Amino acid sequence: DCKFERTPRYCSNAANTGVTSRESRTSVLLDKFRTQLSSGPGFQDFITGVSVNKSNVTAGGEDSEKHAYLSEDLGMYFETYGCQMNVNDTEIAWSILEKKGYQRTADLTEVQEKAEQTIWNRLQQLTAMKKKRLKSHAPMKIGILGCMAERLKTELLEREKLVDVLAGPDAYRDLPRLLTVADGGHQASNVLLSLEETYADIMPVHYVPQGNSAFVSIMRGCDNMCSYCIVPFTRGRERSRPVSSILEEIRMLSDQGVKEVTLLGQNVNSYRDMSEEQFYGSDMTKLSRGFKTVYQTKQGGLRFSDLLDQVSRIDPDMRIRFTSPHPKDFPDEVLHLIAERGNICKQIHLPAQSGSNQVLKAMRRGYTREAYLDLVENVRRIIPEVSLSSDFISGFCGETEDDHQQTLSLIREVGYNVGFLFAYSLRKKTHAYHRLQDDVPAEVKQRRLEECISVFREEAVRVNTALIGSTQLVLVEGESKRSAKDLCGRTDGNMKVIFPKDNVALEPAESQTGPINAGDYVLVKILSATSQSLRGQVLSHGSLRSK
């Protein structure tokens, strides 16, 4: 086999029959070339502004981790759009850059308004700002991180020329180098996906204004390959973060006074830690009854129920949520654990996507309407007070009017507290893009979406009205957006509750009162309900332990 080394190496299949005079001359020339190469300039000699002390450049030595090419006093400003995973990605990226000497700024002083509609609009604004800034300030660089960077690389770099740096979800460790390349006047990108990257050794810098809640990434990527979904192509295959790293981060958050942690993953409940030999085993992954996958059943590993068990024991006064799960990964042991632990929220997201078996098959969801409803029944049997939320897509490829009516009937039959509903939008690279026809007209998609939203709201009002008269433990988030006289917070079931900003009893049946602050638990009696929120009166302060 041929091996590439620092010096030239010739490969040949011919037998070595002796050293000829020609080979001797070649050997002399090679020795001369090696001498010139070893005494010539190295890579760092070609980097502007770097002073090289060759005696300190050692492979694997102390100085090998220093990045002399990084400029000093660099400012970094982040804006985050999209899902919670993007929020967590920002925290990871900032942790990496902070260690390299970057300073984070809270705002751009030249910008007076928030982004209007889309990231594209915002990029146009930032590009205009960048051109003005060149005349009076240090150069400004624009970068995009995450899924959009991977999916729209060509458009962002070549067609629109709006960004200097692109980093995909698995390339954040490369950000210091990419920024240095951009600082030299070149566009820089790394959107390569990894089968292993989990950022397990990176402690995210949580940048939450209230500081009462945080997101913790436990796995990345997805193996489900639903036909409409771009995630496997933008975030890669599933890989789980080691449990020890997750527990360390959550202990740190508990010490900081965080009251609620949401475990994050594209398929969060398919978590499977194989980082230690002791986790290997022959046990096959258990699925919800009646569900199947497009991939072979996985074997061994520390599963989601094991992680949830350990996480919930860290701080009994810290709420634990998780998102976004797949309905296939709710075996009974997960449901029983949720029912038993007081600090694991009794709220489960069950993305249905459609109520039609024909559409579910086209989506490659791995279940039927009947299996989904059986799961809902099982969830409510084990967790009687559970709140359910779901995702629905209107107008998927081939969806008929009858398919749409079946989706409406599913929404009515289940009755969700919260829903996320969208009109189908075709994504490149997906199975649907290559194999299916996006044949539902845009106006039909929109009409069906509006009907789904209408039915969902009707059912949400019914479900939420049933809570009137009950007392709910609410984690206070802060002042209500609509009135400075009110506070808002969320129930265990993730419903928003609005209530007056009054001093209340520090404990139930006590006369001593105190103010309510963000991060407090309070007991609220529910007085009215809409499809989106509850309104009530605070009775007293409370806690998860006294729940």
UniProtKB/TrEMBL annotation:
UniProt keyword terms in alphabetical order: 4Fe-4S, Iron, Iron-sulfur, Metal-binding, S-adenosyl-L-methionine
Protein's GO biological process: regulation of protein metabolic process
Source taxon at top rank: Eukaryota
Cofactor field: [4Fe-4S] cluster
Catalytic activity from the UniProt record: N(6)-dimethylallyladenosine(37) in tRNA + (sulfur carrier)-SH + AH2 + 2 S-adenosyl-L-methionine = 2-methylsulfanyl-N(6)-dimethylallyladenosine(37) in tRNA + (sulfur carrier)-H + 5'-deoxyadenosine + L-methionine + A + S-adenosyl-L-homocysteine + 2 H(+)
Domain MTTase N-terminal: 74-184
PROSITE patterns (UniProt xref): MTTASE_N (PS51449), MTTASE_RADICAL (PS01278), RADICAL_SAM (PS51918), TRAM (PS50926)
SMART domains: Elp3 (SM00729)
GO molecular function, one term: metal ion binding
4Fe-4S recorded as keyword: yes
Family: Belongs to the methylthiotransferase family. MiaB subfamily.
UniProt name for this protein: Mitochondrial tRNA methylthiotransferase CDK5RAP1
Lineage per the UniProt record: Eukaryota, Metazoa, Chordata, Craniata, Vertebrata
